[in-house]
Design a protein that fits this description.
This protein is an alpha/beta fold. It has one domain. It contains 13 helices and 5 strands. 55% of the residues lie in helices and 10% in strands. The N and C termini lie far apart (46 Å). Strands 3-2-4-1-5 form a 5-stranded parallel β-sheet, with helices on both faces. About 3% of the residues have low confidence.
């Protein structure tokens, strides 16, 4: 390890280091969200209200108003990069009054905020990597890993109860987003380390699947970093399950400055 770090240090020239010191880091805020449309491919898929209803639309406007205080210069949404041009064509139509926002957070928050701030475009970031839950659950059962399987069921029950509480009509969109960006909620990411333990030496399926999960998030982080050029203020609107790792990567990257969305969402 020491040799590898020494080799890396030798590869970085003094000129490169000086150039980096002269550039202000990009500020990056990750807003962990639920999917307004519900459903999806997650282990636990949230139930959602009608976010086109007038009351919910007013709540979304309140969220946008708070996020506008960060004054992001670029907005990244959870979307396959191949769909970025099509998404921005819809955004252009929305700005012309020729497109009604659909029920998803990319448009309801992303497009709405971008238009308010006069942005010319939004940026897409995602990386395909399926997670084979069935293979991990099967391995857990075959190896008698009942304690780990019970932990998974406990998490499912906890998340479903939290979703039911947060989806009540009297809980605003702002309140729900605050809850999903708080440290206690993000700590539930440790379930992925429970999953990593499923399997055995001959079939370490849990570790392999989690290597894919960490790898997927690293790929997405890299895409975000390409948007987060020096001096930019970048808002990333992404499913809350990714936020724990995104925050960790941003905080550890010396080229970037992490911004907490709670500083803007909370009263």
């Amino acid at each position: 390890m020491k040799f590898a770090l020494a080799a890396l240090a030798l590869a970085l020239s003094p000129a490169t280091a000086i150039a980096q010191d002269d550039e202000p880091p990009a500020q990056v805020m990750v807003l962990g969200t639920f999917h307004f449309t519900g459903g999806g491919q997650d282990y636990v898929n949230s139930e959602v209200d009608d976010y086109l209803a007038p009351a919910r639309q007013a709540e979304i406007e309140a969220v946008v108003e708070r996020l506008a205080e960060f004054n992001p210069t670029r907005i990244v949404v959870e979307l396959d990069p191949e769909a970025e041009d099509r998404f921005n064509a819809q955004y252009d139509a929305y700005r012309r009054g020729e497109h009604e926002l659909t029920v998803n957070e990319r448009q309801q928050i992303g497009m709405r905020l971008a238009a308010r701030l006069g942005h010319d475009r939004l940026y897409a970031a995602d990386y395909a990597s399926d997670m084979d839950f069935n293979a991990m659950m099967t391995a857990g059962q075959e190896n008698g890993q009942g304690r780990l399987m019970a932990r998974m069921e406990e998490l499912r029950a906890t998340v479903e109860a939290m979703d039911a509480r947060l989806n009540r009509p009297d809980v605003s969109v702002t309140e729900r987003l605050v809850a999903m960006n708080e440290p206690d909620f993000l700590q539930m990411h440790n379930i992925y380390l429970t999953l990593a333990q499923l399997g055995d030496r001959d079939n370490p399926v849990g570790a392999e699947q989690m290597a894919n999960w960490w790898g997927r998030n690293l790929h997405i982080f890299a895409q975000i970093s390409w948007v987060a050029e020096p001096g930019e203020r970048v808002l990333v609107i992404y499913g809350s399950g990714h936020k724990f790792l995104f925050d960790q990567f941003i905080q550890d990257a010396v080229e970037l400055e992490w911004v907490d969305p709670l500083d803007y969402l909370e009263d």
